Every structure is written in C-alpha cells, then in structure tokens.
Amino acid sequence: xxxxxxxxxxxxxxxxxxxxxxxxxxxxxxxxxxxxxxxxxxxxxxxxxxxxxxxxxxxxxxxxxxxxxxxxxxxxxxxxxxxxxxxxxxxxxxxxxxxxxxxxxxxxxxx
Length: 111
What we know:
Blueprint: H1 3-13, E1 17-21, H2 29-38, E2 44-49, H3 54-62, E3 67-70, H4 75-88, E4 94-96, E5 107-109
Helix pairs in contact: 1-2
C-alpha cells in the first residue's frame, strides 16, 4: 500500500482504528499519521514496524500514535491492545489466525 492510497482509504472509510505500518511503498507511515492528525482524524492509530527503537517510538507518539509495536515482538501484546480498543469502542474482539509460521503476522477480527 502506498502513502497516497492509505490516505485515500482512511479519508473514505473514516475508521475508528488504524493499524499503520511505517514502511509504505512509496511513502512513509509517519507522514500518513501526520496528515491524519492535521486533517483532524481522531482514529486510534497503532503503529507497527520492524524498526524498534526508543527515538522512533517517541517520535510516533509525539506525532499522535496511540501505540507502537515491533513486528518482531510478541503479537499477543498487539492483540491485547486491539482488544482493549474493541472494548472501548464496543466492537467485536480480535483473534489471531496463525495456522502456519509464515502467517504469524496476520491478525483477523473474530466474527
């Protein structure tokens, strides 16, 4: 997904929660986050990235992210945060679908 298509999709759907990767091609998730906040989006934004580091984490939080998660970390931590948001927003809980090690980064809403 590109930065431009992410911004179009967010503008068109007005989601309550955005799971945002910092690496977009072309573009950058941090720029998406900045633009969302400039446009007044109140969506909860959870940033996921393969680049763990305090400086980047603090930068994302300063730009308006509600959470920051390392892709190589524990997916249960992200699922826990998503379920907290689901409770807050009175939405369906989130469950992980991990049938194969290659699919460990796929999270699917429970129905």
